[in-house]
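Renewal narrative, Specific Aim 1. Our central claim is that a sequence can be written position by position from structural information alone. The example that follows is taken directly from our test logs and has not been curated for this report. It begins with the structure tokens describing the chain, in the order in which they were read.
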């Protein structure tokens, strides 16, 4: 596999901007989830996020050591969001299957997402997860809209969360 290009100053600035915006989104997701006694990130999107951040932190080499700090921060915040899903998630689903198996579907979702993401990153030499990260962003935004429509309310969500993710 060919070596990825060295990141430019613009790459680093964009990455740091993404780090900041995502950290703000995570704080708002956690805050809103606790206020509403709900969760703010769709379960599938959370599984994909956990897998992506795990791969970037522990499997692929970061372009700069300082990026590892960002990945571990994101992963830490995702575990807090996971807590809100585990605490409030079952009540959110009308489907009996999801209520019963949610606890088991989350690790399965993380594993499946991790395998798919690893395959994408190695196949397309996206070892910094840049392209995959943007794709996941779009999937998460679409999932937020889907969750809003499914719930028919904005529990756990806000326009600011969506804007920071975007």
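The sequence written for that structure reads:
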């Amino acid at each position: 596999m060919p070596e990825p290009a060295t990141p430019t100053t613009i790459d680093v600035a964009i990455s740091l901007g993404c780090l900041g915006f995502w950290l703000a989104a995570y704080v708002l997701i956690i805050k809103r989830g606790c206020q509403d006694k709900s969760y703010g990130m769709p379960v599938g999107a959370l599984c994909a996020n956990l897998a992506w951040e795990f791969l970037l932190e522990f499997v692929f080499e970061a372009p700069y050591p300082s990026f590892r700090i960002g990945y571990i921060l994101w992963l830490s915040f995702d575990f807090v969001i996971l807590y809100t899903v585990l605490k409030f998630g079952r009540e959110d689903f009308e489907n009996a299957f999801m209520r019963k198996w949610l606890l088991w579907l989350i690790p399965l979702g993380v594993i499946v997402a991790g395998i798919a993401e690893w395959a994408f990153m190695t196949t397309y030499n996206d070892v910094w997860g840049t392209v995959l990260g943007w794709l996941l962003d779009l999937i998460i935004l679409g999932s937020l809209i889907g969750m809003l429509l499914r719930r028919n309310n904005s529990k756990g969500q806000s326009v600011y969360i969506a804007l920071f993710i975007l």
